[in-house]
């Protein structure tokens, strides 16, 4: 602990020295070979802690010191180059790969990298994952860092696909570099690395053995307390989440959910330890289920994670991911509003989450029930706001006329979604009438809906079809809040009254009480 305290003190002093030496200027003054004292101290200590497998100190430096140094000294310029810091860490190959991974992540966070930098980052990930897959990695890294690696890997792939698809206004030099580095961030390469990490780590077998009580992977938070390494196993675990995300970006929701299947999301696991991993997992899991018409499953999982964020977001205000947490939180409320408009299963939503939802989207949800042009525009608006940034993974054909195609995948998914919404237009009327009766003749219901009996039968069959879906186990599940069967031309409506859960009320009041106590603690009494 003493070494970390010393490092923190020296970092503050070195930051001011760095400014005096002309290192804190703009990009134009950036010297990649200049290494400020604070960075020397940082890499020396981080290298030593990695060699000693001191996970606590590594985490403190990775989550705290790296962020503070970036904010103080490298807000407008990249960190020193890997070649410049290598002599201070014995030119250690693996450490240099880890440093370069952070270097590129900082670069992406502060600006828009060019084609060459994007290709170099891809090469670095290939080298880093190559060492993990084929070398002997004898180190323990914090779960947060390992999650960030997978998360950033997928983000940079997504970013590159979007960048490559915006061909207009690109200079001839950029176009030439895109042609030169045409294999960088290839979709097959991205999927192969994630798949290889999952398979080589044998994480699926580890999770199976854990169910039988033969492993302590989750209980140990993925760490190896017998002197081994956690890197491959934890990367393999988070790669399943990465595969779900990539397949969602490609619009292949069924395959994405299959990739996540070994993780039991009804239980606590490594994905819930890191809030970014937790939110990313449930966001994409819920969205995939929404697109596959498994509305009740999506509602249930959105509800759980939104309740979790509601209770814990105050503890993450200083986190560098706080803005992203808030953004995903708002997007999931929008997706929940869509799900409940298509499948009004409000009984699956906790009272305090429902209160937040009604404050944000109550009026829009009422209008979305009408299924007129205004309702479709609202479905369009919410979907466009809350959906992932879909990608077209294929490289452009440079010989053809230059056009931007970065919105093509999004437009296709939006078209498919609105087509599904359009098909449910008549179902809203059926649902409203069925809620009023326990039994009603087909003729009477047809008269109310102003259609003939044969058309009504088609509508009722459509309702049955649209309110059922096939789950991941291949079983047919119901999304219906109102169910029925027909016997001798009489429609019999089954009673589906929601069970009141008084616990919701007490949880809401407890949460409000905690907020009041928190506000009182911040009041200064003179």
Protein model, in words:
It is a single chain. The chain is mostly helical and 526 residues long. A 3-stranded antiparallel sheet has the order 1-5-4. It has a two-stranded antiparallel ribbon with strand order 2-3. The chain is globular. The chain has 23 helices and 5 strands. The two termini are 37 Å apart. Helix content is 64%, strand content 4%.
Strand-helix topology:
Layout: H1 2-20, H2 37-51, H3 55-73, H4 82-85, H5 93-110, H6 115-134, H7 143-165, H8 172-180, H9 187-201, H10 203-211, H11 231-250, H12 253-260, H13 270-273, H14 275-291, H15 295-312, H16 322-342, H17 351-368, H18 373-386, H19 408-423, H20 425-434, E1 439-441, H21 442-449, H22 453-466, E2 468-470, E3 476-478, E4 483-487, E5 490-494, H23 502-521
Antiparallel strand pairs: 1-5, 2-3, 4-5
Helix pairs in contact: 1-2, 1-3, 2-3, 5-6, 6-9, 7-11, 9-11, 11-12, 11-14, 12-14, 14-15, 14-16, 15-16, 16-17, 16-18, 18-19, 21-22
